[in-house]
């Protein structure tokens, strides 16, 4: 019994002898140039030609780079998320409303955290009120 042959030792068909290529024989394009500071142009190699980079580096989606985050909104979101501990839901709700006020003018980021702090806070408050009503219903 003969041992199995490696792929490179396999006989090829006569019709593909001249035009045989593998996936690894194709040339790879040169890697793109690393981004540079805003407003400067770089060149990107594509085969044998190079072309200028199209435009400056983009800023974040809202157009203002690195606005500070509202710590009040983050704290409200965390405390509202921990609403199963009973006392953290109302505090998180209050901090969520304060975070909404802070982020309303757009100078501070974190509006989604503040909104979700309010949503989660009210959700936990409703849960605890229903739990209290259920407990009193069973008790009486």
What does this structure look like?
The protein is mainly α. The protein has a domain at 71-139. The chain contains 3 helices and 2 strands, in the order E-E-H-H-H. Strands 1-2 form a two-stranded antiparallel ribbon. Helix 2 (88-103) runs antiparallel to helix 3 (111-139). It is flat. The termini are far apart.
- Range of strand content: 5-15%
Mass-distribution shape:
flat
CA-to-CA gap between the ends? 87 Å
User: Based on helices, strands and strand pairing, what is the structural class?
Assistant: mainly alpha
Low-pLDDT runs of 5+ residues are: none
| Number of discrete helical segments | 3
Task: Please provide the ordered H/E string of secondary-structure elements.
Answer: EEHHH
Secondary structure: number of strands: 2
The strands making up the biggest β-sheet line up spatially as 1-2
Rg is: 31 Å
Mean pLDDT: 76
The helical percent reads 40-55%
Largest sheet: 2 strands, antiparallel
């Amino acid at each position: 019994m003969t041992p199995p042959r490696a792929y490179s030792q396999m006989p090829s068909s006569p019709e593909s002898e001249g035009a045989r290529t593998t996936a690894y024989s194709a040339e790879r394009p040169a890697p793109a140039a690393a981004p540079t500071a805003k407003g400067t142009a770089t060149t990107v190699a594509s085969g044998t030609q190079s072309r200028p980079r199209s435009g400056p580096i983009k800023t974040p989606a809202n157009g203002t780079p690195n606005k500070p985050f509202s710590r009040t909104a983050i704290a409200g979101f965390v405390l509202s998320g921990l609403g199963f501990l009973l006392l953290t839901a109302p505090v998180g709700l209050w901090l969520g409303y304060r975070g909404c006020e802070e982020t309303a003018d757009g100078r501070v980021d974190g509006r989604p955290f503040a909104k979700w702090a309010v949503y989660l806070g009210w959700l936990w408050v409703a849960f605890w009120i229903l739990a209290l009503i259920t407990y009193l219903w069973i008790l009486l």
